[in-house]
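Progress narrative, Year 2. Work on 8709_t:CDS:1 from Funneliformis caledonium advanced from sequence curation to structure prediction during this period.
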Amino acid sequence: KYGVLFFKSWLPKVYFSTMELLRKSSLETAVKLYNHDLNEAIIMCKEQNILNIEKKLEEISQKFLTLSKDTSA
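Result:
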């Protein structure tokens, strides 16, 4: 149950703060922050053994990295 609550609270916080940064700054800065926050959350999930959320975040991270590489090419 904790993992679901964490994911529900984490996703909007990271997403909306990244959107705000993107609005005020550059795409490159927003991408770096979003990727950093995703990695931090994945590490925390590994440490707390929240496997289902960790897998979801890793999927999001992979999709995000693929999309960011496609747009930078």
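The chain has one domain: 2-72. The mean pLDDT is 75.
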